[in-house]
Specification:
With 81 residues, the protein is mainly alpha-helical. Helices cover 47% and strands 5% of the residues. Strands 1-2 form a two-stranded antiparallel sheet. Helix 3 runs antiparallel to helix 4. It starts with 12 loop residues before the first helix and ends with a helix.
Length: 81
């Protein structure tokens, strides 16, 4: 059941009101790694990290997905052995 205040966004109103390139943090974190590559293309450090995740096969994962809710195959690709 979503929170009555944030409606499942998990951030307070002040945080949700901050926008970057027309998107809120909820919007940005709700996108996949692949979609985020274009959004952050001009930010070398961020896009470098996103590219790494994409290159190991995690482009389909939403950035807001916690490690406990990802399928085991995705967790094993990102876990330190």
């Amino acid at each position: 059941m979503p929170c009555e205040v944030c409606h499942g966004a998990q951030y307070n109103r002040e945080t949700r009101d901050v926008h970057f390139k027309g998107r809120s943090i909820t919007d940005v974190l709700g996108t996949t790694i692949e979609d985020s590559l274009d959004f952050f293309a001009e930010h070398a450090i961020i896009s470098g990290h996103l590219r790494t995740l994409h290159d190991v096969g995690l482009g389909h994962v939403k950035r807001s997905t916690s490690s406990t809710s990802r399928p085991p195959a995705c967790v094993s690709r990102t876990s330190a052995n």
